[in-house]
Design goal:
The structure is a homodimer. Chain A has about 120 residues and is mainly alpha-helical. Chain A has one domain (about 20-105): Winged helix-like DNA-binding domain superfamily/Winged helix DNA-binding domain (Arc Repressor Mutant, subunit A). The first copy, chain A, has 5 helices and 3 strands. Chain A has helices at about 25-35, 35-50, 65-75, 95-100, 105-120, and strands at about 50-55, 80-85, 85-90. Chain A has a 3-stranded antiparallel beta sheet with strand order 1-3-2. Chains A, B: GO terms for molecular function: DNA binding; DNA-binding transcription factor activity.
């Protein structure tokens, strides 16, 4: 019986680099969240509470800028991006962030909510 | 009796520009906090719980870089800088930030504390 070659998740060229929890830094997370488009992505992922394709979240920017924002979020440790067939799926690393910085993500999401309501009402 | 001329805080040329609460944006606050030096300033101001001179907080950077970091924090609405005679005093705008984004500053300060302990222990 010939062994069927399988692409390991760890060695696949389509595996994207993610920081381990040890490598995630507060400053990087705050920087990733400090952009209006990236903050919007994070809010939508928090609501979706599931892995979604980039195209699920419509941003008023070009596709390449969208790709850039997702990469910044991934490299900071805020989201996880995985390939499923031809689709790139995105999910919030909520458990990792909550373990590293308890309460931080919730506080940022709540603050974003408050600000949205304030700006919509003004 | 000759009135003693007094420099009004509102009209003094040495009055520094600060965003009003309406002008403070979450993204700007997060960006201001996303730098290690600025995060350190904010942590020290939180501990000091008083207005302190820039020189009170020693950063391993040049004086002009220090001045830059304090300006970014002021322009984002994170700190208030006021002249008292020849000294420029700095204080955290904790009340304003807590009113705008409840829990955010505390969550960031707690996260910074956790990270410091983790990095010191590793």
């Amino acid at each position: 019986m010939t062994p069927v070659p399988r692409a390991s998740a760890a060695t696949s060229p389509r595996e994207l680099a993610h920081p381990s929890c040890d490598e995630i830094r507060l400053e990087g997370v705050l920087h990733a969240l400090s952009d209006p488009m990236r903050l919007r992505v994070v809010r939508e992922l928090a609501v979706a509470d599931a892995e979604v394709a980039c195209s699920y979240i419509e941003l008023p920017v070009t596709k390449s800028t969208t790709t850039h924002h997702f990469r910044v979020l991934r490299e900071a440790g805020v989201i996880r991006q995985t390939y499923r067939g031809t689709a790139k799926l995105n999910g919030l690393r909520r458990d990792d962030l909550d373990a590293l910085f308890p309460g931080l993500l919730d506080a940022v999401l709540a603050a974003a909510e408050v600000q949205s309501a304030r700006l919509a009402g003004s």
